[in-house]
Amino acid sequence: MNVAIMQPYFFPYLGHFALIAQADLWVVFDLTQYTHKSWMTRNRVLHPSGGWNYIAVPLANGSTAIRIHEARVQDLAATKNSLLGKLSHYRKKAPYYRQVAALIEQGFAAAAGSDSLVNLNVQTLKATCDYLGLSFHYKLASAQQYLLPQEMGAGDWAPRIAELEGATRYINPLGGRELFEPQQFVSRGIELKFLDFQGMQYATGDLVFEPGLSVLDALMWNAPEEVARALRDYSALVDP
């Protein structure tokens, strides 16, 4: 079983979904200290005047004194309206604007009734996976009864949680390669692989393409099946 473990990001970039496409189980890692101004509460889309613009989730309690699973959204409806407003310039230019707006509505509707940041990010992630036709089987780390040592380093969480979940392979983005000691996985009978996602370049009308933006930008300009195909075609699993 392929396991991946990632923090709950807000409409993340395509590489996040390339990793989901490789995972049988996705563990939402929401146990550690909340990080201010991270990808958990913001991302980027094209700006109508050039370059990029932030989309964001204002929090009611955005403090480093809390754990990720304790973060609370200030106003869910206002966040949705702000997001749609930041995307409104795509309306007359991007061929899939209406579909993406519907995706956002679906994700926020699923998150209604809770002010949890983790819930919002998971529900919008799930809505995006549904749109792309990706299987998304997830668990919230904070909802599990993992027996974990109190003091763990940045590279220690993954091998322990992967073992507890019965993983035969753990996959991590290539950018986190230096965090891990391969022997920690080998000793547990787990194969360690890293996902090298090369990215997807696409036409953006009369706007200038910017790499590494939110998945929302890619979905504005491309059919979901084209994006799903790119997630496979531009990905490779590499050894430590």
Strand element count: 8
Number of contiguous helices: 8
List unreliable stretches of 5+ residues.
none
Assembly state here? single chain
Based on CA atoms alone, the radius of gyration comes out at 18 Å
| SS-derived structural category | alpha/beta
Q: Label the overall shape.
A: globular
| Biggest sheet strand line-up | 5-2-1-6-7-8
Chain-averaged pLDDT: 96
The end-to-end span amounts to 18 Å
- Assign a percent range to the helix content: 25-40%
Count of discrete structural domains: 1
Written as H for each helix and E for each strand, in order along the chain, the element string is: EHEEEHHHEHEHEHHE
What this model shows, in words?
It is built from eight helices and eight strands, in the order E-H-E-E-E-H-H-H-E-H-E-H-E-H-H-E. The strands form two sheets. The chain has a six-stranded mixed beta sheet with strand order 5-2-1-6-7-8. 37% of the residues are buried. Helix 3 (97-111) packs across helix 4. The radius of gyration is 18 Å and the shape is globular. The protein has helices at residues 14-20, 76-87, 97-111, 117-132, 157-164, 182-186, 215-221, 224-233, and strands spanning 2-6, 25-28, 42-46, 52-56, 138-140, 169-173, 191-197, 235-238. The chain has one domain. The protein is α/β, with parallel strands linked by helices.
